[in-house]
Amino acid sequence: MGRDRSRAGVRVATYNVEWFDRLFDDDGALLNDGGWSARWNVTRAQQIKALTQVFKALDVDAVLVIEAPDTSSRRSGQAALETFAEHAGLRARRAVIGFANDTVQEIALLYDPDVITPLHDPKESATVPRFDRSYLVDMDVDAEPEAVRWSKPPLELALDTPQGPIRLIGVHAKSKSTHGATQAERITRAIANRRKQLAQCAWLRARIDAHLAAGDSLIVAGDFNDGPGLDEYEALFGRSGVEIVLGDGAGRLVDPNAVPPRATVARPSSARFWDRDGKRWIGAMLDYAMLSPDLAARARWHIWHPFDDPEIYADPDLRAALLAASDHFPVTVELSSA
Description:
Structural class: alpha+beta
Number of helices: 8
Radius of gyration: 19 Å
CATH topology: Deoxyribonuclease I, Chain A
CATH superfamily: Endonuclease/exonuclease/phosphatase
Shape: globular
Number of strands: 15
Order of helices and strands: EHEHEEEEEEEHEHHEEEHEHHE
CATH architecture: 4-Layer Sandwich
Number of domains: 1
Mean pLDDT: 90
Distance between the termini: 24 Å
Strand content: 25-35%
């Protein structure tokens, strides 16, 4: 699964690392010991070892880390990520974080400074505010716009790459989970969560439209907690948040994994969760890398799924590492030279 460095191109990834923050102390040092991680039945040392193997196998020029270590008055997510990169021996050894949030789950970029130079560059306009502010949008039928906020404001970066400037927006959209709710609460909460998730995606799409109008090459990637046909409440609102972000017509972004379900075709999957009620593992496509048409024309996508990818499945060490490292699997995009 290693990269052929003789080929010209830029490889980027998005990877949701479940509770990465729990692997570091307040000084950003790795807790590489036998204590339990936040993952079920996985020690911190086991998760660190697994993540090291996965990140080295990815061998990317830049990886968008979703659920990156916390940044606060007591902790530095940037320092923690760079400590991990040094421990793992990664080319992508420098980190940048945008707007810190209060959820202990940042959005960050690990990158190879010999290949890519990123700049945190949040945008705003008279009608579309910065992502650390609030946005008025009407997502129901009362014709009254409501203020929505991001609990994890998207990371907006201007990238200087060997293939020219690229805009990157890293996303961790609102979860629609209703864990712990009663049946009546579940329905009410699921609808409210979906409404907020869709509102965030409408806000994001407004920013995308501005970039495309300016002629920017654009990547929008991360964990959207959504996808076409993902739950039964989608019909109430007409379409999924992912479909809103993708857009329509000439301004439509491209991700071949963002496809509506078809009865005769297996759906791609980027995450794997334990269904405690059904006593089984279930898969979901939550992690996307959407590209502007100019980039998509020379792109190749890859989901690093331990069971769906024959090459990974044939590598027992990498397969086990992907399962121990996180409940999500990385998604990479290789951009060939123009």
